Amino acid sequence: MGSWYNADGLNIEYGRTNTRKANRPQSVKSFGSEQEIQVHFDLAELAAGTAFPVDRDNDGTNDGFHTGSVSIPDQAIIESAVIYMTDTAAAGGTSVSAGTFQENGSAIDADGLVTAANGATANLSANAKQAGSGALIGTGVTQRSFIALTVAGTYTAGKGVLVIKYTFPRSV
């Protein structure tokens, strides 16, 4: 509700969707051949389930991404995924995981970056640094991969940033 595609295929946003830019990949930084994506999140704003940023079919439920969403490009090698917490994750939720998805919201590997064990509430205290150990770490992606967090339970507090670093293979 607040985000849809118009007849021209343009993403339209208003109200809370337009003002809430947390819980989405927002920035990409380059350090030579290394690229970095940052996903700032507020657990209190995330409902249980996967936090998609776009309502693709205008039914009031965010269920995917749009072509302009920040993503890991095809053939990139994921070097690391780390959660840096600024505020402690408060009771109600049990874990946060992060993974990759297709534009339509279909999972490529829903916990391929940060597993539920990595993102367990006990690991999400203020100023904590928690490295992800998902199956995609150290491997190359074979398609454009969008990033989303999946929350188990309902948190009442907790803020942080997920930082994903990737590189492109060097030609020989």
Give the key terms:
mainly beta; 1 helix; Jelly Rolls; five-stranded antiparallel sheet
Describe this structure in words.
By secondary structure, the protein is mostly beta strands. The protein has one domain: Jelly Rolls. Helix content is 3%, strand content 43%. The model is unreliable at 17-22 (pLDDT under 50).
Structural class: mainly beta
Assembly state of the chains shown: single chain
Strand content: 35-45%
In the CATH scheme, the class would be Mainly Beta
Number of domains: 1
CATH architectural category: Sandwich
- Rg for CA atoms: 16 Å
Q: What is the CA-CA span between the terminal residues? A: 49 Å
What CATH calls the topology is Jelly Rolls
The geometry reads as: globular
Number of strands: 12
User: How do the helices and strands follow one another from N- to C-terminus?
Assistant: EEHEEEEEEEEEE
Number of H/I helices: 1
Question: What level of helicity do the residues show?
Answer: under 10%
Blueprint (SSEs and pairs):
Layout: E1 3-5, E2 11-13, H1 15-19, E3 24-31, E4 34-42, E5 49-50, E6 71-72, E7 77-85, E8 93-101, E9 107-114, E10 129-131, E11 145-153, E12 159-167
Antiparallel strand pairs: 1-2, 3-4, 4-12, 5-11, 6-11, 7-10, 7-12, 8-9, 8-11
